[in-house]
């Protein structure tokens, strides 16, 4: 099974990929959502969204947008970049995204509108580059027949891989993902099941350690890969952990300081605060005094990076037992 680092807003950028690569990395890195309109308008920050550092050959550019024409034009630009291919986001269920028609909004529109958009994007993806879609089950009133029919439409339009987060639009992370749909989808498109084409399916949702990875893999033996997102922020070494077990002593203080340095190098100054606050919200969950660390680091980042560096230093002086983590 392949291991994939999922798309996460304010996280899935070069600084984070470099950190994950230090622990062995994974097979593919999906970028955070790239807005078609912003990309085409050549905004001042777009160059940071399309930086493929440090492993261009592993990058999947995730595209979001609200209309066919801009999605097609943006796909042209992304297809010119290094990487595996382009992924259309049909899974984001944040209200400010789907209410505009983006994200899971594409699953809720008239089927013909979505079909035309996918065909338009497919038409500009060159041979050798993959077109994929990340999606959910649909709205709360979804049916299996409607869901699989929607997926058949995607495949018939030329989509070559599907990543399923098996929850509906409103279902939160507290609800167990319905892995059975990932397995059913993989069975539907494996060799011989739907003609000659085999469409790989990636599973996404609730994999946070080796035990949960083993459970997901056992539940979905025909899936081609497992996508891990938030857990990779908490444990950048998780990809090595779930495959072979990982036994090492990790200097957590060093990670904290180095990540601040990486953000300064690979992100614009205007992004430093949000990127650092989001990362430390998750990474601090490693500590026994997680809430205390989160509060100290997030508040310090609000004042600037030097304040954050001092907060990191103070934390590990007060809590020296947190400095080295055995994993």
> Which whole number gives the mean pLDDT?
95
How many strand elements?
Answer: 11
Q: How many H/I helices?
A: 16
Oligomer: single chain
Order of helices and strands: EHEEHHEHEHHHEHEHEHEHHEHHHHE
Fraction of residues in β-strands: 5-15%
Output the strand order for the largest sheet.
Answer: 1-2-4-5-6-7-8-9
Distance between the termini: 23 Å
Radius of gyration: 20 Å
Give the class from helix and strand content and strand pairing.
alpha/beta
Helix fraction by DSSP (H/I, runs of at least 4): 40-55%
Segments where pLDDT lies below 50 for 5+ residues? none
Main sheet: strands, sense, barrel: 8 strands, parallel, barrel
Overall spatial form: globular
Notes on the structure:
With 327 residues, this protein is an alpha/beta fold. It contains 16 helices and 11 strands. The protein has helices at 14-21, 36-40, 46-49, 68-79, 95-98, 105-108, 111-122, 144-156, 179-188, 210-219, 230-234, 238-244, 252-266, 272-283, 290-303, 305-318; strands spanning 2-5, 28-30, 34-35, 59-64, 85-90, 130-135, 161-164, 201-204, 225-228, 249-251, 324-326. It has an 8-stranded parallel beta barrel with strand order 1-2-4-5-6-7-8-9, surrounded by 5 helices. α10 (210-219) links the parallel β8 and β9.
Put the structure in a nutshell:
The chain is α/β, with parallel strands linked by helices and 327 residues long.
List key phrases describing it:
single chain, 327 residues, alpha/beta, 8-stranded parallel barrel, two-stranded antiparallel ribbon, 16 helices, 11 strands, globular
């Amino acid at each position: 099974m392949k291991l994939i680092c999922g798309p996460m807003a304010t996280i899935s950028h070069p600084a984070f990929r470099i950190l994950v690569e230090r622990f062995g990395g994974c097979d593919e890195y999906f970028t955070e959502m790239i807005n078609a309109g912003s990309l085409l308008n050549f905004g001042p920050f777009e160059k940071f969204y399309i930086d493929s550092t440090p492993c261009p050959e592993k990058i999947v550019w995730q595209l979001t947008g609200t209309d066919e024409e801009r999605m097609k034009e943006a796909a042209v630009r992304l297809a010119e970049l290094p990487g595996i291919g382009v992924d259309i986001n049909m899974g984001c269920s944040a209200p400010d995204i789907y209410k505009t028609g983006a994200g899971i909004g594409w699953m809720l529109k008239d089927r013909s509108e979505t079909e035309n958009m996918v065909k338009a994007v497919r038409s500009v993806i060159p041979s050798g580059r993959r077109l994929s879609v990340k999606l959910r089950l649909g709205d709360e009133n979804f049916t299996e027949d409607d869901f699989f029919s929607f997926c058949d439409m995607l495949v018939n339009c030329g989509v070559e891989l599907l990543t399923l987060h098996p929850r509906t639009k409103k279902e939160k992370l507290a609800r167990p993902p319905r892995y059975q749909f990932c397995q059913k989808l993989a069975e539907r498109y494996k060799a011989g099941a739907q003609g000659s084409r085999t469409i790989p399916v990636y599973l996404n949702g609730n994999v946070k350690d080796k035990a949960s990875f083993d459970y997901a893999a056992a539940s979905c033996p025909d899936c081609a890969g497992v996508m891990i997102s938030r857990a990779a922020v908490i444990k950048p070494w998780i990809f090595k952990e779930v495959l072979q077990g990982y036994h090492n002593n990790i200097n957590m203080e060093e990670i904290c300081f180095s990540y601040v340095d990486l953000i300064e190098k690979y992100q614009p100054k205007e992004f430093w605060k949000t990127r650092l606050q989001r990362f430390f919200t998750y990474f601090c969950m490693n500590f026994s005094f997680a809430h205390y660390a989160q509060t100290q680091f997030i508040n310090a980042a609000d004042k600037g990076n030097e304040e954050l560096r001092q907060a990191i230093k103070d934390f590990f002086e007060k809590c020296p037992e947190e400095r080295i983590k055995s994993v």
